[in-house]
Structure formats: C-alpha cells, structure tokens
Amino acid sequence: MSPPSLASTYGAWLISLFLETLLYGVGIFQTFLYFQWWPTDSWSIKGPVVIVTFLETVQITFFFISTYYRFVQRFGEPPGDLIWSDSLQLLANYLTAFVVQMHFASVIYRLAKKRAGIRRLSSLVTYPVIVLAFVQISAGIAQTILSYQLRSFSKLEQTKVTTTLQTAASLACDVVITMLLFRCLTIYKDGTERTLKMLNSVMTNAVIRGMLTAASSAATMILFLLYPDTFWFFLSFAPNSKLYMNSMLASLNMRQHNCDLASPNGEDGIELSQLSTGRSVVTSPAVFAGSRDEEETLPGTTTESAYPSTDCTATATA
C-alpha cells in the first residue's frame, strides 16, 4: 500500500475548513456578546479582542481564497503549489496564538499582583509565558517565510525544524499558562463556600482551555512529523487559532456567570474574607482590575483602589 500523498488527503483540507468555519462563527458570536455585555472594559482588554477578530477574519478569508483556487480555478487537477494566500493565513494563525498568549500573560500578572504573598513576583511569573510566546511567533514568522520561498506543500518537510519549534513552543506556553493560572487562582481561596464555587468554575475553565489549545498544537506537531507530505496536519492546525480566539472570548464573557456562582441570590456583590487588609468587605463585580476604565465608578460600587487585594471579576477573568 502506497503512503498517502497530497492529492489523496485533500479531504482533510476540506474537513479542516469546515471545522474552522464553525469555530469562526462561534467566535464572531462571542465577539458580539462581548461588546454587548462588557462595553466599558478598558482598551487593554478590548484591544486584543479586536486584533484577534481581525486576524481570524483575515485567516479564514485567505483559507477560502486558497480553497477556491485549488478546487474551482484548478478543478480536476488539485495543485500542490503553495500560493501567497497560504502564507498569509499561516502568519495570521501564528499571530492569533501570540496575541492570546500575551493576553493570558497579562491576566496572570494582574492576578499575582493583587495577592500580597506573590505581589513582588508578579512580573517574574509571567516571564516564562512571554519568552515562550516570542519563541512561538518568531518560529512562526520563519516558517511563513520558508514556506513561501519553497512554494510547494510537498516540500514542507524541509521546514521540520521551524515547524517543530513553533508547535513545541506553543504547546509549552499553553501548559505554563494553565499551570500559572491554576496556581494564582488557588491562592485566592479563602475558605468561604461561595468563593470556592466560583474559583472551582474558573479553574476548571482554565484547565479545559489550556488542554484544548495544547492538544491542538501537539496533534499538529505529531501529524506533521509522521505525515509531512500530506494535509493530515491541517485537521488540527487550521482550527488551532479559532480555539485560541474562542478560549479568550469565553474567559471574558463568563466573568459575570462566574461571579453569579458566588452570589446565587443576586446580591450586588460577594463577601470575601481574610483579605490582606485583615477585614471582611463586600466588593462589586462591576469594577475590577483592568476590566474597566480606571476613572469609571458605577453607582453603588466601590472603586478598585479601596480594596486592592481581590475582587470577583478579577479572578473570574481567568
């Protein structure tokens, strides 16, 4: 039995296009909900959402252009050449992963900065994420340039080094993000049942997010190394950036839901005890570290500066 070839695995190309189109639709819907539910978020959070939505729109647009070229313009003779739209969608994919990874690095920094025990290490704990994210995007840019120079999918085996480095760095970055989020959120546990319920939900979502993106990167690396002259790796590679997009948006959109877990009876705020101030306070989920403009204070809420230790929405953001 002859090994699979590019032409014999174009089905994987179409399946991956179908999967990422579904995930893109979910992502656009989540983007719409985000701007409806959180219009007063600061631009430090809105910015990554806008950038990721733009990059994912570019990525899927060029994927459709490449698909049209192969199956319509070259109908009957699917070509194996790699055109300009293929290179651009590769770059958009890598950039999306980078933006999302840097977003979660900022989340980890804010969570660490608000706890007295690790406040001094808040910058230090984000360094592994930042370094791995830059390694990932650097290898991704190199991969984009090399693939465009080769101009053929059948020659992509020559880019094994850069492809392996990019996927391995992305995988490691997602694992580190998950571990740091889990650790930072664990420190927020204060023993109260309502707070534990919220934190358990946030921690579960953080682990699932990390597992999905890490598994996608691992599958891409394995399939590419095992079947370099096929499109099997597209099954995990193409939807990968959409998983990053949806994971970031889901973490942002679920903030109020997670806070509601801690306030099941609809109270305006939740009681958090054993703060670094040594007293019990009630803080509102409406105002939170970096989730809204610093100057804004809603009626009936407390400003961030009054309670610097913790808040419902801060932990719920992860």
UniProtKB/TrEMBL annotation:
Ranges of biased composition (kind: Polar residues): 299-318
InterPro entries: DUF6534
Stretches that traverse the bilayer: 12-35, 47-71, 91-112, 124-145, 165-185, 206-227
UniProt KW keywords: Membrane, Transmembrane, Transmembrane helix
Keyword ATP-binding assigned: no
Segments for region (Disordered): 288-318
Pfam families: DUF6534
Transmembrane helix recorded as keyword: yes
Record-given protein name: DUF6534 domain-containing protein
Protein source organism: Mycena venus
